[in-house]
Amino acid sequence: MTFEEKSKPSICLSKGRYFDFPYPHYVFEDFLPSDFLDALCDDITSGRLLDGAETVMGGRRRIIFDSIGSEYLKKNSTDWFYFINLVRSRTFVHNLLDLFSCASDFYKPNFSWSELKIDEKIPKVKNANGARWVRILNRVRNHVEAIIMPPVVTVEVDISLAGKGYRREIHHDSNSRIIAGVFYLNSPQGMVGGTFDIHSLARRPASGLFDPQPKTTDCIFVKSIKPARNTLVLFLSTPDSYHSVPEILEAPEERIFVYFAVTLQKKNAWKHQGKNW
Ligand SMILES: [Fe+2]
What we know:
Blueprint: H1 3-6, E1 16-19, E2 25-28, H2 34-45, E3 54-56, E4 60-64, H3 67-76, H4 78-87, H5 90-101, E5 117-118, H6 132-148, E6 152-162, E7 168-171, E8 177-184, E9 196-201, E10 219-225, E11 231-236, E12 243-245, E13 255-264
Parallel strand pairs: 5-6
Antiparallel strand pairs: 1-2, 2-11, 3-4, 4-6, 6-13, 7-12, 8-11, 8-13, 9-10, 9-12
Helix pairs in contact: 3-4
Residues 171, 173, 243 line the site of fe (ii) ion (FE2).
């Protein structure tokens, strides 16, 4: 019997520690009930779930929760399907927005926090190979909708296993993100590298342009968060929310994690001068 049939486990956002430097972020411990977390980990370590995953970024096996990924999860793990839908639910997103709406005075959003509409629809698989005129038409339609429609957010999610070779350079996430989260399900023993590192810029750019991938020499290392079982790192995905993952050099055990992002549809989330944002 699955957890979905037995009882509906809840998500705990009460044990968080808040940090405002260098950008607003939280670290939550004991995010999920322990037995539910065990059930999720079992479905990964038994090898059933990540069989169909793509490998990206050096050593990360990933399943994106889109129309194909959701069908796959539904068929292979009702617990995972339930959990991902919980993360994408209106209630959870409202809680996330509440956590950050007061912490963001420094930044200028392209939306009003109170007007955001949360869309729970599962995203369709993106088709980048359509005819040129279809892509141009879509771009025009998106542009018009961004002006006349109320701002809509969805939650984009993937389930990943990070192993030897996985790394992320210093970067900020894509320009449509409002809040991003990395949930670590296990404490990978013997792993070298693979931490969540937080950086600030040595100097704020006078132009107001925040480079998506600044040079290491232009950044100051602030701190490193070690992936640990049942820990969620949440951050406001602002133009200066720089983070990185040092290359995983040793990984006797892979790191299981979920990345999710509250994403503004149709337009950039933050006012920012310059083409790169
Ligand atoms: Fe990132």
